[in-house]
Amino acid sequence: MSAVLRARHLGKRYKQRWALSDCTFEVPAGHVTGLVGPNGAGKSTLLNLAAGMLTPTSGTIEVCGGVPGDGPAQLAKVGFVAQDTPVYASLTVADHLRLGARLNPGWDDALARRRIERLGLDPDQRAGRLSGGQRAQLALTLGIAKRPELLILDEPVAALDPLARREFLQDLMEAVAEHGLSVILSSHLVADLERVCDHLVVLVASQVRLAGALDELLATHHRLSGPRRDVATLPADQEVISASHTDRQTTLVVRTEAPILDPAWTVSGLTLEDLVLAYLARPAGAGSAGRPALTVLR
Amino acid sequence: MEGAVIEFHLDGRSGVSPYLQIVQQVRHALRLGLLDEGDRLPTVKEVVARLAINPNTVLKAYRELEHEGLVAARPGVGTFVTRTLADASLAAHAPLRQELRRWLSRARRAGLDDESIEALFMTTFRTAAREDIA
């Protein structure tokens, strides 16, 4: 697997507060990766580090084989659409395209013009007078026409109505299919991510809690419900992500590669939303350091 | 180029993964005779531009259909149906449906409600499937 982003013990501190700490993970090339997490988890910090808008306090981050923001060649490889899809309010749509052409060596002017025409944007319109959906589409046009290897989008659809959101994601997926670019996007809208992403990174309280291919994550997490039971008695290969108990019943979310064989459990799958919520609600420090691993003696 | 014959749709609440939904919709169309040998499936770009889904999802579905011998990809041209499923089994539908109807009315006479009927059917279906594998 070739990686489009590699982070090793990556950390970023603002004054006294660590916005991101000790993050080690990879994002594969040629995929659409969703970045989820609650507000303040460090998503924007991570994306800004990847784009080269920020520099790490500790650890390293490598994007498309180079250091983020390190010279024109690196900048040309990475497209970045910051939060709220910013554009220059006083410049016209045509000005934006001219600016894109001047600033980006790999600029695909034909693609940009085709998109603007298809979207029905008036080239002489000032960007400040565009609707939220149109503004987002203009920002996406600049990001795609730059022809980057990696396109990073920070909450691109959060402020859009459902129709504009769908249109934005349709166009983004079309660009992925056409140009094979890698995408990392953050979003709160898990239902959207479930459609467009095939890879997922869950960030909670400045740390990466979960990263992997969506299919695998969904296939290896299960909801178990059955008679009340102490989680310490579970097989060692079942990692408990969340547990709730009533007097009589226990409901768990577990992660395991192996099939669940215990007939006492009713086993069901999880939706992406359930999966993400289970990790968001998980207390810090749980997981590897949580339950001591049991070994099976034969 | 001739247009694609079918369009896909996604049910977000079904709990079935998007790739499997596409596979099932193609199989379904083949069974009903909606798709025929030589028909072209929508291109990956067409599907993602319509459904706003990940291109790899569509590729995965098409690969699975190819693996089953139902379609074949012709590079640069598209993915085409190579085999139909609307063969002898289509003729068997009508008598099977009739039997199922009779069974359903027996179940109702025995006092089962919709939910009980569905639960009974699904557990029997699953058990039978498991026994077939074993």
H-E string of chain B: HHHEEHH
According to CATH, what is the topology of the largest domain in chain B?
A: Arc Repressor Mutant, subunit A
For the report, how would you describe the main beta sheet of chain B?
Answer: 2 strands, antiparallel
Uncertain residue ranges of chain A: 288-298
Organism (chain A): Nonomuraea indica
Domain ABC transporter (chain A): 5-230
InterPro entries (chain A): AAA+_ATPase (IPR003593), ABC_transporter-like_ATP-bd (IPR003439), ABC_Transporter_VariousFunc (IPR051782), P-loop_NTPase (IPR027417)
Protein name (chain A): ABC transporter ATP-binding protein
Please write out the topology.
The complex is a heterodimer of chains A (298) and B (134).
Chain A: E1 3-14, E2 17-28, E3 32-36, H1 43-51, E4 58-63, H2 71-77, E5 78-81, H3 93-103, H4 109-119, H5 132-145, E6 150-154, H6 162-179, E7 182-186, H7 190-196, E8 199-204, E9 207-213, H8 214-220, E10 221-227, E11 239-245, E12 249-255, E13 266-268, H9 272-280
Parallel strand pairs in A: 3-7, 3-8, 5-6, 6-7
Antiparallel strand pairs in A: 1-2, 1-4, 8-9, 10-12, 10-13, 11-12
Chain B: H1 18-31, H2 44-51, H3 55-67, E1 71-74, E2 78-81, H4 88-109, H5 114-133
Antiparallel strand pairs in B: 1-2
Helix pairs in contact in B: 1-3
